[in-house]
Amino acid sequence: MKSAIFSAGLLLGAALITLDVKAQSAGDPYYVVIGAFSSSDNAAKRISSSRQYNLAGVAELNPARQLHYVYVMKTEDRTKALAEAERIRKATRFTDTWVYTGLLGDAPKVVEKTPEPPVKVETVPEVKTEPVVVEPPQPVAVTRSFVFAIADSESKRQVTGEVHVTNAADNTKIGTYRGNQPFSFTYTDDPGTWSIVCDVTGYRKWEKVVPAGSAVANASGQLVIPVDLVRMRTGELSVAQIFFFKDATVMLPDSKMAATELLEWMRDHSTAKIRIHGHTNGNGKGPIISMKKGSMDYFSLDNTEEGKGSAKTLSQKRAETLKNYLVSQGIDHKRVEIKAWGGDKPLYDILSDQAEANVRVEIEIIGE
């Protein structure tokens, strides 16, 4: 049965060590890699999910393959790298971890041979007056307070959620910020143009490119960027950013934010009804780790038990976990239905580098 977060490293080969001969130079470090992705957003997700295992993930570009490698160790010691990769494969859900040696980064350094020093020729120094050098003024860093004002476009009430910000000029990540909470941003001259994405459960995905310097200050001096979300309507479906432990019906701690967004949406729209669709990657049978009866640990493996079952059973239990969480927080159980699909409705081929997206929970509005 496939993990809720499917590693793209599987497609790079089953071998524990990958060498790029063309890029490799003497003295290249060894990297313990837990995933490789064509999308920087997916690489960022892998970094986030690695934290539950106390791993400090870093993403850098492999220029030869144009893939973002996420690694958790960089060392000159080959034996140490192999041992760490083996430990991670056994102790975490990153079972495709491998060791790579070669060049990483947008502009990797290549070791060049040091040229022979030139023959020194003795000359009589020329006496001359040194010119006065005037240093150009250095740009002054400015720190300003920004806030993303996330609100329902109809009711104008604040909405709980996060925004993901990248630099529109070079697509580099700036950060992820909580809505309606100020944050500091330091820049020189111009904060630049931001590409902003806000995907809150219960609302249509919001995307916009905004010149950050055009934001208008509020009474507190904070530069406000409005994010007006449009409520989903009956029959519309959205993919919730809710993920689960491998072979488990327990949600990952990183998913608590998205679960809270759905909860707040259900509270704000007290007559709405939803259907939770559970999906897996493939239809194989395997172990299923479930919460023990009466447990309220929706985001922890501390109080679980292991059984076996089909992919459809796993998708059913995962949808039930999300429903039970909502009910435990005061949502009427009659407002929430569930539908289990197993692996019958994949978005991508189960062996593709995008197969991770097949493991998902979708929220459908079935009544308002």
CATH architecture of the largest domain: 2-Layer Sandwich
Give the helix proportion (percent range): 10-25%
Number of separate strands = 19
Strand order of the largest sheet: 1-5-2-4-3
**What is the overall pLDDT average?**
85
Order of helices and strands: EEHEEHEEEEEEEEEEHEEEHEE
Structural class from helices and strands? alpha+beta
Structural domain count: 3
Which fold name corresponds to the CATH topology of the largest domain? 60s Ribosomal Protein L30, Chain: A
Strand content: 25-35%
Number of helices: 4
- Main beta-sheet annotation: 5 strands, mixed
Extract low-pLDDT stretches: 1-24, 108-114
Oligomer: single chain
Question: Could you write a compact summary of the structure shown?
Answer:
With 368 residues, this protein is of the alpha+beta class. Helices cover 15% and strands 32% of the residues.
Describe this structure in words.
The protein is α+β, with helices and mostly antiparallel strands and 368 residues long. The protein has 3 domains: 8-101, Sporulation related repeat (Alpha-Beta Plaits, 2-Layer Sandwich), CATH 3.30.70; 141-229, Carboxypeptidase-like, regulatory domain (Immunoglobulin-like), CATH 2.60.40.1120; 237-367, OmpA-like domain (60s Ribosomal Protein L30, Chain: A, 2-Layer Sandwich). The chain has 4 helices and 19 strands. The strands form 5 sheets. The protein has a 5-stranded mixed β-sheet. The longest helix is centred in the C-terminal third of the chain and has 18 residues, at 311-328. It starts with 16 loop residues before the first strand and ends with a strand.
